[in-house]
Design brief:
This protein is mostly helical. 65% of the residues lie in helices and 0% in strands. It contains 11 helices and no strands. Helix 3 crosses helix 4 and helix 10 packs antiparallel against helix 11. The radius of gyration is 19 Å and the shape is globular.
């Protein structure tokens, strides 16, 4: 159960999800009955109290009093529900999953530019900063965010890379991105905070490739580790 300070941090992190409610096609609730908001309220509380892994779409639907199909209709997946529950306009887990769908060699640049784009946009950066701030203030939020990063980001990248040390390489890759986000957007260290995206890409892409493949040039570089391309 959450204590009073945890509940306050959860409210700060989650916030209200703006936007017009779509009309659901299935489920026990209909029209403007507040089904979407009820689902979000249940999910927000359950995620913060129980962690990411323990919560299922089915259990959220049951507690909210709606059909499972309605939860999927509104949010698509568990990570989509998590992003909406924490009011993430740009959900990094969803963006990273999309970036992994293309050619593996150019994945670091796609991931980097997508994350810079979502953090540079004022409407999505605010909730992300609130989530990071909540992680620093509340251990429950920190555990939740860490679990999501591990399962929906590090594990996903590791599965795409393949190989015996894929998880370690994926973790190093994530650490490079996390350090950039903290320095540029949370601590606002200069001159990094003022650099344009292209300049950041030139500086960070060799580091990201080094983390994934052991060479700044990527998986096919001479003397570098050739990644095994697999589909998650």
């Amino acid at each position: 159960m959450m204590n009073s300070s945890g509940a306050a941090a959860g409210e700060t992190v989650a916030g209200a999800v703006a936007g017009e409610e779509p009309v659901p096609r299935r489920g026990r609730r209909s029209g403007n009955s507040g089904a979407r908001e009820q689902i979000l309220a249940v999910a927000r509380r359950r995620f913060l109290a129980e962690g990411y892994h323990a919560v299922t779409l089915r259990s959220v639907a049951a507690e909210a009093g709606v059909d499972l199909a309605l939860v999927s209709y509104y949010f698509g997946s568990k990570k989509g529900l998590f992003g909406a529950a924490l009011a993430l306009t740009g959900n990094p887990a969803v963006l990273l999953a999309g970036a992994l769908e293309g050619e593996l060699e150019s994945f670091p640049e796609r991931a980097l530019r997508l994350l810079i784009g979502v953090w540079d946009a004022p409407d999505s950066a605010g909730p992300l900063r609130a989530m990071i701030g909540g992680s620093a203030l509340d251990p429950a939020v920190a555990q939740l965010v860490g679990e999501v990063v591990q399962r929906e980001m590090v594990d996903l990248v590791a599965a795409r890379l393949g190989g015996a040390d894929a998880r370690r390489r994926a973790c190093l890759f994530g650490t490079q991105l996390a350090g950039l986000i903290m320095a540029r957007y949370v601590l606002r260290l200069q001159p990094l905070a003022a650099l344009p995206a292209d300049e950041i890409a030139r500086s960070y892409l060799p580091l990201l490739r080094q983390a994934l493949w052991g060479r700044p040039g990527g998986p096919g570089a001479p003397g570098g580790r050739r990644a095994v391309v697999t589909r998650a």
